[in-house]
């Protein structure tokens, strides 16, 4: 009788421990951060991870990031707002391709620009 009770307690503990680990695995699969985005000229642009060192000749300065929202919250629809770029980051618009903007990266020792494309 003691062996059966110990066996049932052991099985119960194994099931409870596995339930705890499966709950943690589910949390890891949930979205915690949105992709890098910036809203300018009444359009939403998303980061591409492309970085260039020289702007195209047709790129023109259009302003700076004025407001930053948390990356784990939905993006707001206000011009010159970003969820990852720091306030004051310079924004350049490509006149030859209106679906592309460039943002000057301020945290590098070299002059570099991150490419963003229109997503809406």
TrEMBL record:
Protein name: DUF3221 domain-containing protein
Highest taxon of source: Bacteria
Signal as UniProt keyword: yes
Record organism: Oxobacter pfennigii
Keywords: Signal
Signal peptide interval: 1-21
